[in-house]
Amino acid sequence: MKQIDVDTLRDWLENGRPVTVLDIRNPEDRAQWSIPGSVHVNAYAALKAGDPDALQQVELPADRPVVTICNAGVVSQLAAEQLTERGIAASALTGGMKSWSLAWNTAEIPLGNLTIVQVRRAGKGCLSYMLASDREALVIDASLDTMVYVRLAEQRGWTIRYVLDTHVHADHLSRSRALAESTGAALLLPPQDRVRFPFKAIQSGETLAFGNAKLLAIATPGHTEESMSHLVNGQALFTGDTLFTSSVGRPDLNTSGTEAQDRARTLFRSLQQLLQLPGQTIVLPGHASQPPAFDKKPICDELSHVSSRIAAWLRSEDDFVRIILERIPPTPPNYSRIVELNEAGSLPEGDVTDLEAGANRCAVA
Ligand SMILES: [Fe+2]
């Protein structure tokens, strides 16, 4: 049986190699998360039931291979077998969507003497960033294997000087501590007493220089108490989970009683502060709510556009708190265990895809 691993499929998609990605899952599973550009056929039940004609109706371009996708990489093998029997070059994605969690792609944003690479965890929507000026780089919110960032820096001749997290994450394991350790870079976190490992606290108002660029830290509590945003060269704003391109961060994780309400109030004030920045400031958020496509187009927008999308929520503090608390999405799976590990600064050995399973749910939807 022919199989293809996540790294190979990721590479094909990133480099534009022709391939048909055929998702055979139930519509409910596909609605949770999918591979950008994939074709869907609802054949999971028929394949599982042994129907030899489960894929008979599917028309596929003959000039490219097919990669079949299911949840865990088992039923997709039956699909690949049926297609192979029809003379189509088909293979199944090893580990299915579960393994796809760690797939990623990139988009670049050149800004004068500064290059920003948005490193998108395509399998989960977490957005991390590499910023470089004059060959000195810093990484914000590393959510992928540390080697991803190390290789991207090597390919471009960059040295990673700083690694930052905007806050203690609840939806993915932070790779920032490990990345700082493996590269010798300084680990910078917002001031807080949550994590139990050494780091350098970056204060609100403090400026960090790398190459010819400057990064200004701005405390933006609300999503979490320590949440911080960063403005580079007065042009681009890294908002973590405080502000997304069309929504805001949820204020309720790790709270009890009326704490979420208080945090929503704090978030309102932080947002008001960010919205004072010039309208052409580029907002670069910590998450995407849709699977980031392999299109090399950055997920970002001008602050003026973001602001107009959420204006109705921001009419008054009381309205904001009411609207936000009404719209809180379901709690992400395993978030308390992920927070615990991020506070301890430890990455579990082996496969973490079960622990990190599911799309991110950091935004108020
Ligand atoms: Fe978060």
Describe this structure in words.
By secondary structure, the chain is α/β, with parallel strands linked by helices. Helices cover 27% and strands 22% of the residues. It has helices spanning 6-14, 27-32, 44-48, 75-85, 96-100, 146-156, 176-183, 259-274, 303-310, 317-326, 335-344; strands at residues 3-4, 20-23, 39-40, 66-69, 90-93, 105-111, 114-120, 127-133, 136-140, 159-164, 186-189, 200-201, 207-210, 213-219, 228-232, 236-240, 282-285, 301-302. Strands 6-7-8-9-10-11-12 form a seven-stranded mixed sheet, with helices on one face. A six-stranded mixed sheet has the order 13-14-15-16-17-18. Helix 7 (176-183) links the parallel strand 10 (159-164) and strand 11 (186-189). The two termini are 41 Å apart. The mean pLDDT is 95. Fe (ii) ion binds at residues 167, 169-171, 223, 241, 362.
